[in-house]
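Summary for the steering committee. The consortium agreed at its last meeting that each partner would contribute one worked example illustrating the joint modelling workflow. Our contribution is presented below. We chose a case with several input lines so that the handling of multiple components could be demonstrated. No manual editing was applied between input and output; the record is shown as generated.
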Amino acid sequence: MSTQNTRNTASARSSGSAEPILRTENVRKEFGSLVAVDGVSLEFYDDEIVGIIGPNGAGKTTFTNLLSGALSLTDGTIVFDGDDISDLRRYKRVRRGLVRSFQIPQIYDELTVFENVQASVLSRKGENNRLFTLTHRDSDSVEETERLLEMFNLEAHADEHTEHLPHGVRKILDVAMSFALRPKLMVLDEPTSGVGSREKNAVMETITDAAVERNIGLIFIEHDMELIRTYSDRIVALHEGRVLADDDPAAVMNSEEVNQFILEGGV
Amino acid sequence: MSTRLPTFGDVKAGEIKGVLLDKRLLAGSALFVFLALYPALTMNAYHTRLLAWIMCFAIAALGFNIVLGYTGLLSFGHAAFFGAGMYTVVIAMERAGITDLVVLLVLAMIVAGVVGAIIGALSVKTHEIYFALLTLALAQLLFVLATRDVGGLTRGTDGIGLTRPDFLGLPVSEVPAQFYLMGFYYHVILVCLTATILLLWVVLRSPFGLTLKMIRENETRAEMSGVPILRYRLYSMILSAMIVGLGGALYAVVVGHITPEYLDWTMSGEIVFMALLGGIGTFLGPVVGAGGFILLQELALSVTTYWHFTMGLVLFVVVLTLREKGIWGGAKELLERLDERRDNS
Amino acid sequence: MPIESLMVNTFNGLYFAALLFFASVGLTLVFGILNLLNMAHAAFYGLGAYVAVWTLNNMGDITTSTVVLLAVLVLVIPLVVFVLSAVLDKTVFAPLYEIEPVYQLLATFGVILMLDDVIKFIWGASPITVDGAVDPSRQLGTLDLLGISVSAYRSVVILIAIACAVGLYLMFVKTKLGKISQAMSEDYEMVQMLGINVNRVRIMIFSISVAIAALGGALFVPFATATPAVTLEYVLLSFAVIVIGGLGSLKGVVVAALVIGMVRSFGIAYYPALELAIVFGLMAVVIIFKPEGLFGDEGVVE
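What follows is the complete predicted structure of the assembly.
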């Protein structure tokens, strides 16, 4: 295992101690007359895993798109790592450490798995404008890429073009590419969607282990209540664009409202 | 597990890599020497001219392919950069009295780069066909201005003739026309082409080149990796324009007379055609395509007056069958398959 | 600006607009409904021009009746091209519907080159013109319109363009073919899944589009010569029209053809050096600031 990421792995992951890494204040998004996100105020810490649940149309994906900057806010403020990033361009949010992964894996199909990850590594280092180094001779980024491939068990696929990879591997690759950006907080939109039910746990293990090892806060949207219960430190339930509940898993799962609107309604 | 960095302990990987590299280098060097000696060995003025012509367009097609093949943007306005290179040379010679070839070439690249920056800045926000149509409109705007001699620089459709430039203070322009091309200018073009190939080979395999491929393959992901994609598309346009401008500048001296038709959209179409014919998905495809295009055209012209039909048919078939592989990629694939079959038997 | 020249220029602008409408409307329909960006569309305008000159000149021996000549231009030539394009759609264009727009542009650029030589092979490389005796524009002479004297033939062309635009509009809102086409422009796959014979609709739309372009070319030659350059000029002009109007919009084509027609007419009269520059400038400005064009986000009709 790599040596640089051993710090704090043993320390307890508890929330509420320090400043939140991400804070949303009254975040609102309207599409014409439709209000998709209706005044959401939440806090997230860099040492916790937060699951977001809610029925279709609750505003989960819109909320993540607001965080990443894919959509612009109608109203409200997003504060990340102490700064107001409400109007910051997408790529600049990424550079500050707010990274998202995608429900449908977003990877570079004509490139190899190795190049996919190396591309992220080089981007994080801000080395996109280096003209006269051959990428495969750039030992720093090559070594880092190899470490990442090892961490996500992707070494066997390193030289394969990604278009023929099985879906589960594409998912993992997508997450590995996001980790390569060394985020402070990662937003995962249905990390296990399309993954076979037996693999779901393995995928989640890989992701959460990596997050714990690297001290990265996680927010993940998930429909599978079993996974949510197993991996979340805290659960946020959204309904019709509002926060219905925000508490530890047991409390949220036992909440009357959550049961009424989300769990029984069938997800 | 694969080790990517050749280390001292891993002799085998290093060895294979070395041989491969050597093979390509050897073949390249041999071709370079052969091409350099060709005019002196054959004394064939027609062939020399044809090769000079091909090499100018090979540079242009290579430059063009940075935008199409590597960044994934179809520009239908590269005639603007080719023409900008050409007009810079004649206008600088005529108006400013600059006669040194090196200065002229550098100047042409700068001017083409500036035109590329302007057209690029206006068009990088658009996508796919909109990018193609916008670059087409902007280049055509330049064509119209040049035809109508707006600004009084281009002398309209009459065009401007030019004299032969000197080289680093040497009065090479005084030698007879035939010797100028066969003994000097041809070699300048060859060196420029070689330099372009070497430069781009490195640049397109650098982190910068990888960034362009990221944008081509998945724009969303590239942006979500922290890459300012519009800026890199613009860089790609500028670099491409400079190299296409170099091709145009070199070609200006070969033809000796510059008219606005080099700025017309059909010129852009020819450059696109060459890159596609050779294979936009391969590094050397555009060079092969430029050669293939010009030779095919000469061949078709020599047997029929209907060479447009031949060229159109070839373009049509290449698009439908080989797509981004082109003839160079297609040939490579064929060789690989033959190799595999031989290995199997 | 004297009122008379204003009126003359407006009339000429309408005439240019009519020609641009014929040349462009099919291009935008084929793109909007069938998702094919056919660079070779204008080549059929050029083809129509050649066929018209050839037909008119060969008809001199049989008849010089204006009505017959006009009927040939308006009915026979488009019909012939309609059949021809149905064949081409089944053969040359069929594989193009499946590929990316960028490759469509390139493949159809190849088609332009081929058609260019086909025309040269049949009619030679030098420009050809309509003989005076069979030129309907001469036969019809001029007529007095609100105090200015204008070409009666050009007035007829403008009226035909208006009829054509109205006819297309009615086709889209009234007929089954039109309604299916509209549905296809919104969701091609969905229509396909409904079990509708998409190929038949495709051939109809493609052939109607191409026939209208040929009609424009045919109507255009009595006032001009048929040369291979016609195609190249109209490729660009028709792209300008459909981009400004908004790709895929019938209303957009009408409005943009009027705009460019007027720009050309008044441009030639007052700023002859810049007339085309204004057209391309306008095209660029529209793509930069309003890439969907004036009416591109509204569907075929609306």
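Strands of chain B lie at 160-161, 257-258. Residues 5-11 of chain B have pLDDT under 50 and may be disordered.
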